[in-house]
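[job 0412] stage=fold_complex status=start
inputs:
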Amino acid sequence: MIELQHVRKTFGSFVAVDDVSLSIPSGEFFGFLGPNGAGKTTTIKMMTGLFTPTSGRIVINGFDVEKQPLEAKSTFGYIPDHPYLYDKLTGREFIYYMGGLYNMQNNELKENVDRVIDLLELASWVDKKTEDYSQGMRQRVTFAAAFVHNPKTIIIDEPMVGLDPRSARIVKDSLKRQAKAGASIFMSTHILEMAEELCDRIGIINKSRIIFLDTKENLHLHKTKYDGNLESVFLELTKEENE
Amino acid sequence: MATFFHILWYKIVMFWKVSSKQSFGVVIRNIGSFVVFGSFAVGAFYFSNFVTAYLLENVRIGLFLFHRFIGMLLFVFFVTINLGNMVVSFSTLYRTPEVEFLLTSPVSFLNIFVIKFLDNFFYSSGTLFMVGFSVLLGYGFYFELPWHFYLLMMFGVLVPFTFFAACIAVIVLMLVMKLASKINFRILISAVVIFYLCQIYLYFKISSPVHLVQEVMKYYPYVDLYFGSLDPGMLKLLPNFWVSEIMYFYVTGNFSAVTGYTIMLVLSTVGLFIFALATANAYFYSTWITSLSIKSLTMKSLEFKNSIFSFGRRSIFSPQVDVLLKKELWQFLREPSQWIHLVVMMALLMIFLSSVSTLNIKLETPELKAVVYLVVFIFNIFLINSLALRFGFPMVSLEGNAYWSVRSAPISTTTMYWIKFFLIMTFLGMLSLVISWLSNIPYLYVHRVVGDKPWLVEYVVPQYPVKVMAYFSIIVTPIVTMTLVSLNFGLGSIYSNFIEKNPIRIASSQGATMTFLLSVVYLVFLLALYYFPATMLFNAEMKNLPIVWSQLQIVFAAILIPSVAISIGSHYFGIRSLRRDY
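[job 0412] stage=fold_complex status=done
writing structure:
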């Protein structure tokens, strides 16, 4: 369960996120769309505790991210847009490291590390140092690290960056499995087909404000107004005023 | 050449844009930097002026010995710049994405080399020139030297001298990298380390400061005369010797000798630079290719596979503490610029300690004894500070871009902060105790060689006041260590830079320089306080005077209170800074 209540973030005079309110129930796959610079990553960074909101409140699985950060963080897994890892650790060590940070005890951790390595098909290279990984390999390791503690909620920022078609399929399947298992997923993306394929509900943010929030079914109704594809809906909703 | 200036121009524009970015925080930080740098420059001026006056007027060592000591200091300085440049050059020439990018463009290898070499040199030498100029001012003011002395010393001596060291560093580095395609890189690195250690040992063995003092003092009070015949021939080939000669002859008015040595220094530097360019022209690209195959220089013997240090093995700590400790350990052992630098610094430290712990002090006056004691004490503390700056300051920054993993995990940044601090504090705390104890051995047990057999040593227990001095230092050193580690670590957190991957560049950034200057202010404060018990206790020993215990208590309190305040302040602001937006 994710709740954003009138969340606002400013950097000096620049308003990055303005009065965003959302509620994502458990088990829902939510797609967060928007053009570059709309405020997607800032919203996600506030949800994960990397940024502090200027005003408003974020509650994840019943815990206020600002007031109970540790409790809130223990319930979700995060996959950032740039999969930076510690260069000198191996992929397996990084997954162990993340599991340890989530206070997982050794036996359970070992089982889960093996499970996510299988799930993301990392076995053939997971014991090499991450400095030798490609972008896609890094991305898959961050997915594994986010899944290792069985989070109730998964927050993902642009999951397909640098993934080849096979890796993309592996990631999509793993997300579907997590959603099926009851995890709520908050995914920011600008790949419209992916949002259409995976998400139950879609929100579109533009110029720091939510401009569309509805189910995938209702979005299809919008599609008929245009030329029948999601891209046209997206472009129409997010077009510049002076265009 | 046009390409070179084109790249240089954009580098200057980039630097200007970053430095001229105006915001309230930046302005405050710049004012703060200006105050600290300015105060330090003034402090360095007074300190060098005071030391010059003290050694020449109170201790009366004479102009010749004074300049020979400057020469020895310059040798240490030269080796430090040389080694520092070598390690930094390895990162800037072979490990930066910028070089990788430039290699894909139609820029010649030589141009890429020169750009990165100069970038490296000026980046790490800015503060050094500022401090050097302040020290020269202090020295020059004592001798009432004219303005052209400073001009000559800055541009004709100091810049070529540091450039000389930097050129040797890149030449050695490229040759090592060239050989790395044929010989194991670890063996090469070990050979270089051993070579440098031997050089330092031989220098002090040949220059033999104690012998030099004894020889010159035979001519007392005519110690200002030139005793060049006492200088071993080999030392005359070294640039630090030329610099000390330039200074001596300038003060004594022998300008033809000044001109001769300056021309020799400048021409040698130009010659070395040309040699470095030729080496780069021949080897830079091929060595860059070689560097790709030695991507990871890990201490393989320390991999501890399936040991308690492996991830996934149970330990006595909680899972969070366990993985944070293991992550720090492996990040350190698998990063060559970290462990190689530590090995070199520890080896130098061992050489220093082995000399100091067997020092046979036969000085006539309590003041001189106090000076020697203070020099050794402050040098110990300076070493601890250097290690704290080099390894403690970058610790938070080294989280790098992967810091998101800690910030988004259910662990407080305070926990992470204290774990990192605990690691560096434990290491330097123990080291400081060893250093303190070893350097106080001559004050706890005076040893004397029996007959002509150097392996037979008899110990004579020194008098009570000297032992008090030694124990006082052994108690004070951990307090000072805690303060310096806290200062370096806390400010490292405040000035954290998660973009820079190179720990040496982090430890020589603007924030690190500020931290270094603040620690030096603290060291000067410490030195000023320490002067009183040192002179009082050596007077008590030599003149059979009573020990003034109240003075010891006051000095101890005067050290303890600000030290605790500095430590708490550094941690408070260090922890607070970790909570800012990432």
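[job 0412] summary: Chain B touches chain A at residues 23, 295-296, 311-314, 318-320, 322-324, 326-327, 330-331, 334-335, 400-402, 404-412, 501, 579, 581-582 (CB under 8 Å).
[job 0412] exit 0
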